[in-house]
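User: Before I run my own analysis I want an independent prediction to cross-check against. Here's the chain; please return only the structure tokens and, at the end, one sentence I can use as a sanity check.
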Amino acid sequence: MSYPATPDGTIRRDYRTINELVFHSLLEDVLSGRLKPGERLNIDEIARRMGVSRTPVREALKQLVAAGLVENEPHRSPFIKALSFEEVIELFCIRAALDGMASRLAAHHISDEQLNYLDDCCRQMESLVELRQYNETLAINFKFHSVIYQAANAPRLSESCLMFYRHTEQARHLVIDLPGSHAEICQEHRVIAQALRSRDSEAADNATRQHYFNSARRVAKSVGKEIAI
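Assistant: Structure tokens:
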């Protein structure tokens, strides 16, 4: 694969785009379960499958290592990291703090258009839950939280929120079949959206924190455990 040499930086922009495409492709493979915890990642094989050189694959794997989804060992191929129960609970508690702050800030900045979008996400999720289309529900869930991160107007915080979102997505299979969990999540989203519409930063923060504490409790329940938060 060759790249046109131009003095205006086209090569670098194209290069970054390829890196991003490889990263997001591998990320989706991890989050969807196509790549299983413990599975080894062969750089040459991935490069051939994607039709790219080894370099963007290596860069994508570095990003996945930084995100805590892939682990490296000396002289061995990198592999998909398996999260322990304790790690999953800790991640949801971290998300409670980070996303709570994002909602607190968003309450001061969010636009009417963004508020309407959140309401629309809630309606879509509720309809999808009734149809038991849970994978589609999770896609809308990501959009819901992404709007709040954007409205927070705090790029570093938003980046951290997204990173930990990716961490906990790996554990979504623990609650996907838990009876009533999706309806509970929909209701929690409604509470968050209402607090934001009221421009109540304290209520938005608290509602968001409770959402993630409840998510941690649901994970615990799915494996027959109880936790104190």
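Sanity check: Residues 126 and 202 are 26 Å apart (CA to CA).
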